[in-house]
Design a protein that fits this description.
Bound molecules: nicotinamide-adenine-dinucleotide
CATH architecture: 3-Layer(aba) Sandwich
Mean pLDDT: 96
Number of strands: 7
Radius of gyration: 18 Å
Distance between the termini: 41 Å
Strand content: 5-15%
CATH class: Alpha Beta
CATH superfamily: NAD(P)-binding Rossmann-like Domain
């Protein structure tokens, strides 16, 4: 039986993940590979990608790595050429790279604001635009709509203290995704686009964020901030990277074939309250 991310003739679909050196990105790359996709793993931190490529290959998957700064249009063009020359048109794009700044509105500088938007929002726009024709072509050729998964957050839906700039970038991801979904449908593109909204995920990103939240007065210490965040999720814990990765596989696969423009909450019930 074919895997979820293989076509009927057994061909592997192709995927590109940004920010793949990080917690959610690396888990996503592995999950996509486990479900039958060839995966191009990308990050600004290229050195950290070779171990991930080795790990995927050791499990029998196919992967390659490239340096990709998501805020740089030229960097996207180079990655696009590399994946096209090796595997043909891309079928799954995961715009995952992201950064955070934990500061009050009063303390957030214009440089903080611009840096966050460059990576979290502009990066997603540039990637979507860069791969649009290829994703449509792959959808037409394979008979399965291609899929873009954009990384938002619960911060794209509800307010979180000391994260106003970050929340603004994630709200932009959410609304870009919806408008693009309507447009792509109107244009008849063989392509779906959805956003994913994790609660707190136990990665280096979250550890840094919790430390800074503790320092900002959200809780008396980073340990207490961690306990408070776990308790704030009705499921009683933070997520692990693979729990987000599995949802991304679902959005990439034809199991979600009637979903486009949706916001998938994978948040342990955080926004259900
Ligand atoms: N961890 C959480 O609690 C959480 C919750 C909701 C959403 N998210 C989102 O999930 C995504 C991944 O987060 P994570 O927890 O794995 O963080 P992480 O810090 O472990 O990984 C982020 C990766 O993005 C890369 N990166 C940074 N700037 C980049 C750029 N300009 N171009 C390309 N890559 C760049 C980093 O090198 C890093 O490898 C982010 O978009 C984040 O906002 C995280």
């Amino acid at each position: 039986m074919n895997k979820l991310l293989q076509l009927k003739d057994g061909t592997c679909r192709t995927a590109l993940v940004t920010g793949a050196a990080g917690g959610i990105g690396s888990a996503t790359a592995k999950a996509l590979s486990n479900h039958g996709a060839k995966v191009m793993v990308t990050d600004v931190n290229e050195a950290a990608l070779s171990a991930l490529v080795d790990e995927i290959r050791a499990e029998g998957g196919e992967a390659m790595a490239a340096a990709l700064d998501v805020g740089d249009p030229e960097s996207w063009q180079q990655a696009r050429q590399q994946v096209f020359d090796s595997w043909g048109p891309l079928s799954i794009l995961v715009n995952n790279a992201g950064i955070d700044v934990v500061k009050s509105v009063a303390d957030t500088s214009l440089a903080d604001w611009d840096r966050l938007f460059r990576v979290n929002s502009t990066g997603m726009f540039l990637g979507t635009q860069c791969f649009l024709d290829d994703l449509h072509a792959a959808g037409q050729a394979g008979g399965v709509r291609s899929s873009i998964i954009n990384m938002s957050s619960i911060c794209g839906n509800v307010g979180v203290a000391f994260q106003s700039a970050y929340s603004a970038t994630k709200g932009a991801v959410r609304m870009f995704t919806k408008a693009a979904a309507v447009e792509f449908g109107t244009l008849g593109l063989q392509l779906r686009i959805n956003s994913i909204h994790p609660g707190t995920v136990d990665t280096a990103f979250a550890a840094q964020c919790l430390t800074e939240l503790g320092e900002a007065g959200f809780a008396p210490s980073p340990a207490e901030a961690r306990a408070a965040i776990r308790a704030a999720h009705p499921i009683g814990d933070m997520a692990q990277g693979d729990e987000i990765a599995d949802a991304i596989v679902f959005l990439a696969s034809d199991l979600s074939r009637f979903m486009t423009g949706s916001e998938m909450m994978v948040d342990g019930g955080y926004t259900a309250q």
